[in-house]
Every structure is written in C-alpha cells, then in structure tokens.
Give the backbone structure.
Amino acid sequence: MRQTFYFLLLSFSLACCTQMDQMERSDYSVIKYEIAGYAEFDRFHPLLADYKDLFVFFDKELIFKVAAISYPTVDPSGAPVEASGLVFHPINKKSRGVIDFLPSAHMDSEGGGTDEMYAEEAVLILMGYTVIMPDLIGSGISKEKYMPFLMAENTGRVAYDMRRAAAQYLWDEFRYPFPSETIIMGYSLGGSAALATQKYYETYHSNTVKVTKVFAGGGVYDLPTAFDVFAQTGIATYPAIPKTILAFKHYYFDLIGRELDLGQIFIGDLLTNCEEWFSGAYRSGEIRRMIGTDLHAYMHPDFFKPSDQQNDEFKKLQPFLKENSVTQGWIPKAPIYLTHAREDNLAPVECAEAAVKKLREVGANISLRTYPGDHMSVAIFFFIRNILRFL
C-alpha cells in the first residue's frame, strides 16, 4: 500500500512538472500591484472601451491581480540591465493558460506598460488568461537606458527573462504551476517583437518553452523591405527609420568604438538635433511635427538609391538590417497568423508579404489576412479577430 502511495505521489509530481521547474530560479521584485476586475475595463484603452458592449464574452465575475515586476536581463551589448514588465493573473478562477503579449511601439521613455499598469495588450485577462508583458529596455524601470528599437535578438532575450521572472513570481505568490505552453501575440512593434520572441524561444529554449500559436499584426518583420519601401514612397508618418538607425549606431558602433557618420545618413534639422529628439523625451507625434513626414527633408539623398549604390555609411548598416529581420535564420515551428492593414501608413504591408514569402520557403506554417484601412484602424480588427479565436 505504501509503495503504491509513493508511486502515485511521484507520478503526480512528474505530471505537474512545469517550465518553472526546468528553469533556474529568477530574481524579481514587485514594484507595485493592484487587485482589479471587469470594472477596470475602461482603463485598458479608450478605443477598446468604445466597443465594450460587444465584448459580451468577457468574464464580468473575474477578479485578477496586476503586478509590475522588475527583473535582471541584458542589453544588446551584454551589459546587465534591470528591466520591468506586467503580470496579469486570475485570482478567483483557474487560469486558462499563458499569453506572452509584446508591447506596441512608442518613442518616449514614459510609454512602458508598468507606467500605466493597464496596457490594452493585456485585455485578454478578462477571458481568464494569464498575460505577461515586458516593457522592453528603454521604458519602465529601464527608461534611462538606450532603447534597442527593432533589435530582434535582444527583444527575445528580454521577453524570455521576463517569462522566467513571471513564472517565479506566480509560483511564489499563487503557487501557480507555470505551463511550458504559451501563445505569443503583438501588434505594431509588438508584432515584430512577437516573431522575434518566437524565434528566440524556439532557437534557444525549445526544451522549456513550447510556443503553440503566434498572432502578430502590423509589424516590420523585414527591415530591408521596409527601408526599400520607404525609400520608394519618400513618406513616413512614423519616425521609425531614424529611431532604428540611432539604436543600431549606439549598440553596434558607439559601444565598441566603431564609427558611423550620421552626416552621410541624415540632413537638415534632424542631423543637428537627432540625439535630443530621439532621447526618449518626446512622443512620436511631437517628433513628427519637428521632422515632418517627407523623408527627403531629413534623409541623405543616398537613402533613396538602390542598396548597392548607397554610400559607405548606409552600407555599414545593411548587415544589421538583415540580422534584425525575423524573416531569416530560422524555421518557425509554431503556426503564425499575421494581420496587416492594406494601406498601412506606419509599417508597410510589404513587410508582412515578405515574411510570408520567406518563411514559407523554409517550411513555416504562416498565413496573412489583410484589411482595408490604415495602421491604427486595423488595430481594432486585430484585437477583435484574435479575441474571437479564444472563444
């Protein structure tokens, strides 16, 4: 009888083995927290609040805890950084599973989820899912650090370390056995970050994290394609190109003593003021008012030439554009579902089309659905469509 009891106990223990059990313990600190419920729906985002009556399937009885936590990770140079993020977890009901939701883009350092506590990306908590959402470096508690904008490898690393910290926090706080399975989601920069995180998990941690599905929208998945499209149109309503170039300059050039001459990349007022304007002190709309939307007003004429005819400074950047594109260097295992605006004015739809073409060539299960409208108008389709998937 005793042998049977110990056998059953051992079997139960093995069956309950989770990702947290397989990973090294992660240090973390709880910065702040709140206990909340459906009454806080309006705090997630005004746009979602406008459609509140449509979400009849949200659990109005659910009580959840949202905690902002800090945890150790590294920046693209490998230097230690204390980062932060949000963890949403049901209190009065069993969690339906874990969603890694990557944050949308912002230029200012005050735009991290932990600053607001109720990021719209986490609204699926109201369907009973545990949602974890890293701020990424350059916002939240790490807002004094240089933002590694569209730097794929570091995005995945920071998301993974957040996942480890969240697993430890949820075990300590709720004795929640953190599952190895996860769904990854993200829109805009979060769309790019979602695929970057999938790539990192499946490349380095497939033994501890099993990605089941990825839902991404409005992302710049292929940087060379994005730069080519912007060069052809000459219009950019979001200042992502300077932000990306300055991030690359900081981490790939300045920190290791290599030179990148911005005088051969930018012109006009941007050349004079780029470090200040992209320091994290200004929102994207403020930057757009300062530099405009005409790329010819602030990008060097060589930007508009074919890549093989550009000057040496642009050619220095080209390998890093490829390196930080999530369309190459791996074979995705989990299915990927992309959503994109046909008239996307922030992230060209050609980026999504390139992702589908290149990843299908290596055998990925990836699909794309496009909608009429621009980047922001299609964002609501992304959320509603994917919320319906969870019913």
